Sequence to fold (477 residues):
Amino acid sequence: MSGTFLGMPAFPEAAREAVRNTTLRANLRHATHTIRDKRAKAVAELDDWAELREAGKRIKDHTLRHLDRFLLQLEESVVRAGGTVHWAADAAEANRIVTGLVKATGESEVVKVKSMATQEIGLNEALEAEGIAAYETDLAELIVQLGDDRPSHILVPAIHRNRGEIRDIFRSEMARWGRPAPENLTDSPAELAEAARLHLREKFLRAKVGISGANFMVAETGTLVVVESEGNGRMCLTLPETLISVVGIEKTVPTWRDLEVFLQTLPRSSTAERMNPYTSMWTGTTDGDGPRTFHLVLLDNGRTDTLADEVGRQALRCIRCSACLNVCPVYERAGGHAYGSVYPGPIGAILTPQLRGTASEIDASLPYASSLCGACYDVCPVAIDIPEVLVHLREKVADGGGHRLEKAAMGAAAWAFDHPGVYAAGQRLASLTRGLHPSRLPGPGRAWTDSRDLPEVPAESFRAWWKREHERKEGSA
Fold:
């Protein structure tokens, strides 16, 4: 199935193919520029945006430092409210827990709220292997699922599709999944949205099990929070008899007062709205209101390993707003699929290698999928210094042998710096042969000099100039 990222090539190869797709580049350019311009206006409305950003950073850092305590408090609060808490060390364990819970209900289908965590662990594929159909209900996720595609953006998973492509997908695939698309469907946004609404309504009314993630979990009360723009999430969270939520452990916040900060920064950074149209909150179970059974699956899957890295742990502050994707020149040209992960863009380039490790070629390549321009850091609502983490991860990849040529070059340079005579001889040789130096690098370096000029070697080194000037001054004294 093409919905999984397994077996994808490393970023340079995937990006090289993506930039040749002119339709993809046009779709991405239009969408990202539109979103980021709206976001800038929404953020400018708040005089205290810088203070909110700093507050969000501090809340997240404080929570991560004491995550063990807050997670235990969260568990106690959820259980006290009538829910059941499960702990999953990795994706395989999380999938076993969720499939087991669904099978225990006797149901063979579920409706899903848009969830990055369930995409991260490949839950849909795990459910399918057990004969359980999982229906995505977020409009963009529905488009991706119907098109047997992969998400390419955190906020807008189908950002790589235009309206004409979506119309064609609805026409050809909806009938296979349920209610068919209306006859003579056009690419009008209103008609496309209505087609999705009619298609999903029968699933909402029939499903007995709902699966969600969560944007936040409040430790003091055991409350989970989902913010969205369409209302599909609200249907999934309230209509089924059983609700199963799979949430990364880093989504915890200590108190409701802390939550107030993020309910201001997240909507403005993501959808450029002052407030999300639908903010759903639930605390355990309540007789006669909502699901009768609630399960919370707390997902690690590499997060505690990330937490152990003093530089890289700041990636766990991420609130999944996607602002960094919308300003990134690399993402705009390469698209999300090139990152080979459910987390694309700048945040994916630092989060994925930490969650999955850098043993594979694609994960080792992700820290290099950036120009280090810093635009991502400027817009991050929790002040994640993504360029700092990228450089940090590049060092780890090089130390681990992931880039042998770079490691060899750095090793040779270090040796030369440790031997002043060799270094000085090298400088003299470079100056003497400066007329023979090429303007472009050969072999693998050719691509680098396609867009950069090699610096000219001066006629003499600084050391030679200093020695000559020093001798001249002594001679004239």
